[in-house]
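Sequence only, no structure available. Ideas?
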Amino acid sequence: MDLSSLGAASAGVWTRCQALAVTTRGRIAASLRDGYWQQPYPSVYADGGSELAPEQRGFAAVLASGGAEQDPAVPRAVAAGRTAARIWDLPLIDDDDPATGAREVVCDDIVAASSRTTRYGDLLLARHQWRLDSADVQQRTSGLLVTTVRRTLFDCAGLLSFEATVCALDAALQRRLITPSELAAEARDRRGMPGAPAFRRAVAASDGRSESPAETLTRLLLLPHLPGLVPQVELWDQAARLVARFDLGDEQARFAVEADGKRGHAGSQMVAKDRRRDRRSVSFGWATERVTWFELRRQQAALTRRVLGAYADHVRTDA
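Reply:
I predicted one. Tokens follow.
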């Protein structure tokens, strides 16, 4: 039996019907039992022994929702929401957060004919009856139908927290997957739809200069208290050499904030590098506060008090 054709047109994911066209029920059962195949959703298979990539997860969810051999002009199932965001490689801070324990990575979103959410083992498949225009859907080179970046960001505003939505928006802007004018147009065109107010609020708070979710979260937390903070502030010496590039900086107060992501700045070499940069910036009259991912996610009030205290001390000393 030649199984090489299975999944060739769907990123290495296939249906039970497709498998039965080239093999037997017994062979399918044995492949699953022995771990050669895995079954992410009922009657949907992939090679075993590895974690599915976002595009494969999207295909699995689409195939499980009746999207096999569909007409792109009249799709029966389209990867959307969180699933589409992962396919577009947008950061979803609640997918797997070591600080909060959030595990939304188990959730897939699909636009389909019926609306229901079903749990299959460790995965949760949410089918939505969102109305999609042809301009909202894009076909990937793999053949997968997925909502466009623009539509995906709008849908995520109704699924994610405010902070998570802004992190995704910042990443899309920073990578030039979308422009501020396109976001403004999306907010205008979707006015009156469910999720539109949340989307407009997130767009108003977005800033494509932020280069990581940690920087976005830091800005959202501190900017209401320290409006002089600006993303990606550069400090140069008199010889036009770059001394430091701060995640957030107030040039007038000469105060900076550096944010560590989920993985932080691990290793003695990185720690030493950070300290050397801090010492050099101090010689130019700058003070730097460092914030951790855990503080940003679990200790916002205490973190705000600490940074505001450091800012006040620095301004008083510098006066």
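The CA atoms of residues 21 and 142 lie 21 Å apart.
Hope that gets you unstuck.
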